[in-house]
Amino acid sequence: MLKFALVFIALSLLALLLMSLWHRPTRLRPPEQRTIQPCPGTPNCVSSLDEDATHRIEPLPVLDDDPRASWQRLQQVIGEQGGDIVFDDGRYLHAVFETRWLRFRDDLEAVRGVDRIDIRSASRAGRSDFEVNRNRVERLRRRYLAE
Predict the structure, then answer these.
(1) Where are the beta strands (DSSP E) in the chain?
(2) What is the CATH number of domain 41-146?
(3) pTM: predicted TM-score of the whole model, two decimal places
């Protein structure tokens, strides 16, 4: 029984290691598709446009009725939180976050509206993320609203 447990643990660690080494490159969608996509059925995604409570997260408000300043504030906070902005056209933003230990990559997307910024954060690999994306967006929200 002990052998079985050790083999299971070793295989599990190997699978995690292989998943962390396998990085899908960041692929930007064409301009007409640069919108926030619905979350998949897995619990490793949150979105302000999703109606399902499992995935739902509140959008960011526009601060002081100034969408451009709010967008700049969001860019700043993403950088402070360790995100790498790979695309930003002033209306749509795509950033990548990488976890410390296993270097999993998560994608964060934001779309600027008149009175709100819709946001989506999702893991690229795996099924569950242990609420990493939800916690990331909530930390980002607290920092965004802090000043």
Answers:
(1) 45-47, 60-61, 84-88, 92-98, 105-112, 116-123
(2) 3.30.310.80
(3) 0.81
